[in-house]
Amino acid sequence: MNPADFLRDWGAKVVNGDLTDPSSIPACLVGVSTVIDCATARPEESTRKVDWEGKVALIQAAQAMGISRYVFFSIYDCDKHPQVPLMNIKSATEKFLGSSGLDYTVFRLCGFHQAVIGNYAVPILEDRAVWGTNDDTRTAYLDSTDVAKMTMAALRVEAASRRTLTLSGPKAWTTREVIELCEKMANTNANVTTVPTWLLKRTRSVLRSLQWASDAADRLAFAEVLSNNDTWSSDMAETYRLLELDPGSVTGLEDYLQEYFSRILKKLKEVGATSDRTNFYV
C-alpha cells in the first residue's frame, strides 16, 4: 500500500520524486504551473539535506521548468532565531526563493491542530505519559484544512504575489492549557511528565558533541526558542482582508478538539470502553 493512495482516490495524479535526489525533481514538474511546497524532513532524515539542499534543487528546477507560482511553507519568526538550524534554514530558503525571480508566496506557520492530537489527545486517551515543558510559550494553532483554504485563496488573489504572510489561529495556548483542555474533554487526568527547558538545552549540548547525534541535537534546538516564553501568534486582520476570507470560517482549537473527542468517545462507548482505556489507536 502506497501512503499516497488516498490522493489518487481524490483524483490527484501522483508522481514520485525525492528531494535528496535532485535528478528526480524535473520530471515531477512536467505539465505543472504551480508548486505548493509543504515537504520537510522526517525525524530519521537530515534536515539540511532535505530542507536546504533539496529545496534549493526544487526551486532551481522550478526556475528551469517555468513554474508560474511557488508557495513555500515556513516557520513563524524564523529569521529571529538563527541559532535554531531548521529555522535558520527556513529563513535562508525564503531569501533564496525571493531572489530566484519566481512569483511566490511564503506562509509562516505557528502550529497545527493536528499536532495537538498526536502529542496530547491520543496519549491522554491511551493513558500514556504526556510530555510537557515548564515554559510559558504560547502557540496559536490552525487547522490544516484552514491553511489549505488560505493557500488556495492566495493563488486566486494578485495581492498575495511576492508576499510573506504569517498564518495563526484565533487564540494562543500554552502547553499546560492544551493539556488541561484535553483532560476536560476526555474527562480524565493526564499523566504529565514535565521536562524543564534547561534540561532540553543541556541535552542538546551533549548531543552536539556526538557526531552521530547531530540531527537530534538540531531538533532539540527549539528548546532555546521555548525558553524565551514568546507568543507564536500574529494579527490576522490584514491577511484575512488580503485573502478575501471570513475570520469566522476558521476553526479554533477548542472547537476542533471538541469535535475530535466527541467522535472518539462515542466510538469508545460503542465498543464498551472507557476514556482511559490503553492501547486505543486512531
Automatic annotation (TrEMBL):
Keyword Lipid biosynthesis: no
Domain of life: Eukaryota
NmrA-like domain ranges (all copies): 6-203
Cellular component, GO annotation: photosystem II; plastid
Keyword tRNA-binding belongs to the record: no
Pfam families: NmrA
Keywords of the record: Photosynthesis, Photosystem II, Plastid
Subcellular location: Plastid
A single GO BP: photosynthesis
Protein name per Swiss-Prot or TrEMBL: NmrA-like domain-containing protein
Organism expressing this protein natively: Edaphochlamys debaryana
Top-level taxonomy: Eukaryota, Viridiplantae, Chlorophyta, core chlorophytes, Chlorophyceae
